[in-house]
Amino acid sequence: MSSTVFQMTEQDLLAAWRLQRRHIVAVTIMNFAPLAGLCLYAALSWRNFADYGWYAITFNPSLPLAALFLALVNLWLVKVKLPGNAKRVLKQQKGLAGEITATWDAEGMTMAGSSGHSRLAWGDYIRWLEDDANFVLFHSDNVINPLPKRVLSDAQVAEIRGSLTAALGKAGKKRKLN
Which of 36, 39, 94, 136 has its CA 20 to 30 A from that of 124? Predict the structure, then answer.
């Protein structure tokens, strides 16, 4: 049985949320919508460029403005809203901001803090994600357990990755629900 004790920081929570956000299809579409809109606008305008010159491109700026708006909304969400949410959640959930003990064995993982504990078998998570900073373990689509790698040794990272892969398959793959 292995374990680690850590305190969740805003940066840990923010990194976990950003990792989770990168794997949501609707968010991916929203990230590429401004570029797709500009390409569509350029294609439509280019047809008329020979006849009308630059006027064809500047005549109706609604699509480029919409693309710019979507890009700014996305930038605001990533750079302002998510960090603010991380700070707010850590203030609201005192148990999350306190000391957390993660314990795991071949059967599953236990996360325990001042406000309670949860024990899930590896196969009970619906999916998992990993990047350089975190493991993100999903109880459901919106309930996660972030586990920062900064508190884990290389051997512990390999052990957790091996247990998750054996139970759920590769990272990002969702477990089939019955």
Answer: 94
Q: Cβ-count burial of 58 within 10 angstroms (0-12 exposed, 13-18 middle, 19+ buried)? A: exposed
Residue type, 13: L
- Tell me which residue range forms the domain holding 147: 2-9+95-168
- Its pTM stands at 0.72
Q: Which of 66, 92, 118 is the last residue of a domain?
A: 92
Is 104 in the same domain as 149? Answer: yes
Question: Is 178 within the bounds of a domain?
Answer: no
- pLDDT tens track for 71-84: 888 888 888 888 88
* Sign of the CA dihedral running 35, 71, 142, 161: positive
Tokens coding 88: 């707010």
Whether residue 8 contacts residue 96, with contact meaning beta carbons closer than 8 Å, is answered with: yes
Count: domains in the chain:
2
Contact yes or no for 121/107 (Cβ under 8 A): yes
